[in-house]
Design goal:
This is Glutamine--fructose-6-phosphate aminotransferase [isomerizing]. By secondary structure, this protein is α/β, with parallel strands linked by helices. Helices cover about 35% and strands about 20% of the residues. The chain is built from 19 helices and 26 strands. Helix 7 runs parallel beside helix 13 and helix 15 packs across helix 19. Bound molecules: 5-amino-5-deoxy-1-O-phosphono-D-mannitol.
């Protein structure tokens, strides 16, 4: 989604801003823009529809300055265009604003401002902010910005420059991430650490309702009401190099191949062999509290929701606590019954997905205890939750989630084992699961070695217009995630069904042109799954099975190594990530930035 980057210091600002924007490209965008304070203090703006390289080509030769802000826009109000690209300025071009989020009462404010004589240059919601700030009679830029923000409803992460207040950038956050990067006599601001880790790893993440003023050698944070807040910089654990492609052609490929290492990281330091359990330091849930949990409700969106579905299964199997997962986007709108004996778990790679954050806030308002299972340290959901665990997948740049899915599921296995061991799970089963977890990195490596074969299969199936994915119980969320992966990256329509539901409808779709991808683990449901393959074959359907042994009824089988039954779902999705990748490659898709999608969905 939209991205913000800003700099104030001594260096030439335009190249720094362009580099920052490039590092935010993965979030998805359709236009970009930059504004700097020029040599005579005037604001100089350049905007372009399309890619950052288009913006770069429009930057004049003489475009020097040491203060500036920039933006990549993902259209919400008004089509992608030069005019709608940020920054937005007031009529006198004294105030420039870049904004992530949505101003909900923008239409109302536009009507009010138009009646007062304001002429709008764009169709965006953001432009109202520039006019409101410019029209404020407050004495300082900080007060002008907070006065303007008092009139708006909605979500924002903003950065503001004002010609009459040189040498400072004022930023504010409500629902959209804003991170300050603290350098030596220079300061950065961005909506994502990716844009600033190449320059500093000392960061301050603003909370909702917080603002900050950045000067070259100083920063301060305060509330929108003006009270000082404490901001202690923390060190980002991810190095700048983790954002590079590392010799792969796409981030997706790189991230799929990082999974063995990533899983090793999420396990590291957490296993307690003596008591056949794991330690998850940040849960803030003691054994007595863990024993009193009567239900677990997991909330997430997209891939994180699917990881949560597998997580719910693991919790039921290992801890015998009733658990289920629900899309956070649905949950928050159905006035859910919030039960004090239920433990709520919010899952999110970015930790910034608006629907998940809003669900967490709603739950907390109603007194629930919420844990976060999150990848990005210090993100909004991690901060809002009462405790939780990080999944330590490292930065995920490709819009399509792969390694974070796998690590999130492993994190759920750890949570399930922990809960199980303070309840009913035996030492023997605890040890069995730990052994299984330890095998995962090597087994992932083994699966990744089958890439050439998967590539051939992907070519063979890439002509399909639609594909069915089936799985049963443990295999069903694997099928759902694999189907999402394929449709996101290849644009082939894909639909996931429980294999048990075939006869109740989807069997009508089966013919030679509709391939089925079937998840067929060697567990107590193997025969039932084989029966589903028979049914498909009898109707001349093509079958690609992911299984622990060759499947006679399948046209092709990808054989994956066997782990413990409960942990098999972690491995069975991995070849299908590669399948989606190679299908997309065969079809010439934009793999890291699929059309219409953004990496983190920070608006509704
Ligand atoms: O950052 P989150 O995990 O909260 O994101 C949730 C979804 O938007 C995300 O998983 C989406 O489905 C991805 N494109 C999946 O590949």
């Amino acid at each position: 989604m939209c991205g913000i980057v800003g700099y104030i210091g001594k260096r030439d600002v335009a190249p720094l801003l362009l580099e920052g924007l490039q590092r935010l490209e993965y979030r998805g965008y359709d236009s970009a823009g930059v504004v700097i304070t020029g040599k005579s203090g005037e604001l100089r703006t350049v905007k372009a529809k399309g890619r950052v390289r288009e913006l770069e080509s429009r930057i004049p030769k003489r475009f020097a300055g040491t203060t500036g802000i920039a933006h990549t826009r993902w259209a919400t109000h008004g089509a992608p265009s030069d005019l709608n690209a940020h920054p937005h300025l007031d009529a006198d071009e004294k105030v420039a604003v870049v904004h992530n989020g949505i101003i909900d009462n923008a239409s109302e404010l536009r009507i009010r401002l138009s009646a007062e004589g304001v002429v709008f240059a764009s169709e965006t919601d953001t432009e109202v902010l520039a006019h409101l700030i410019a029209r404020s009679a407050a004495e300082t830029l900080e007060k002008k910005v907070s006065e303007a923000l008092r009139s708006v409803e909605g979500t924002y992460g903003i950065a503001v420059l004002h010609q009459d207040f040189p040498g400072r950038i004022v930023v504010a956050r409500n629902g959209s991430p804003v991170v300050l990067g603290i350098g030596e006599k220079e300061m950065f601001v961005a909506s994502d650490v990716a844009a600033l880790v190449a320059h500093t790893r000392q960061v301050v993440t603003l909370g909702d309702g917080e603002m900050a003023t950045l000067k070259a050698d100083d920063f301060r944070t305060y509330t929108t009401e003006g009270s000082q807040t404490t901001a202690t910089p923390t060190t980002v654990e991810w190095e700048a190099e983790s954002y590079d492609m590392g010799g792969h052609d796409t981030y997706m490929h790189k991230e799929v191949f990082e999974q063995a290492e990533a899983v090793d990281r999420v396990l590291r330091g957490r296993i307690d062999d003596r008591f056949a359990t794991v330690h998850l330091g940040g849960l803030n849930l003691d054994a007595r509290e863990a024993r009193s949990v009567r239900r677990i409700k997991i909330l997430g969106c997209g891939t994180s929701y699917h990881a949560g579905q597998i997580g719910a299964g693991l919790i039921e199997e290992l801890a015998r606590i009733p658990a289920d997962a629900e899309p956070a986007s649905e949950f928050r709108y159905r006035n859910p019954v919030v039960d004090p004996d239920t433990l709520y778990v919010a899952v999110s790679q970015s930790g910034e997905t608006y629907d998940v954050l809003a669900a967490v806030q709603e739950l907390k308002r109603k007194g629930a205890r919420v844990l976060g299972v999150v990848n990005v340290v210090g993100s909004a959901i991690a901060r809002e939750a009462d405790g939780g665990t990080y999944v330590h997948a490292g930065p995920e740049v490709c819009v399509v989630s792969t390694k974070c899915f796998t690590n999130t599921v492993v994190a759920f296995a750890l949570l399930a084992l922990h809960l199980g061991r303070v309840r009913d799970l035996s030492v023997t089963d605890g040890k069995r699961i730990i052994e299984g977890l330890r095998k995962l990195p090597a087994q992932i490596e083994e699966i990744l070695k089958t890439e050439p074969e998967i590539k051939q299969l992907a070519k063979a199936y890439a002509d399909a217009r639609s594909m069915l994915f089936i799985g049963r119980v443990r295999g069903y969320p694997v099928a759902r995630e694999a189907s999402l992966k394929l449709k996101e990256v290849s644009y082939i329509h894909a639909e996931a069904y429980p294999a048990s539901e075939l006869k109740h409808g989807p069997l009508a779709l089966i013919d030679p042109s509709m391939p089925t991808v079937a998840i067929v683990p060697d567990d107590d449901l193997l025969e039932k799954n084989r029966a589903a393959l028979e049914e498909i074959k009898a109707r001349s359907g093509r079958i690609l099975a992911v299984a622990h042994q060759e499947q006679e009824k399948a046209d092709h089988t990808i054989v994956v190594p066997k782990n413990e039954d409960e942990l098999d779902p972690i491995l069975m999705g991995i070849p299908l990530q590669l399948f989606a990748y190679h299908t997309a490659l065969a079809l010439g898709r934009d793999i890291d930035k699929p059309r219409n999608l953004a990496k983190s969905v920070t608006v509704e």
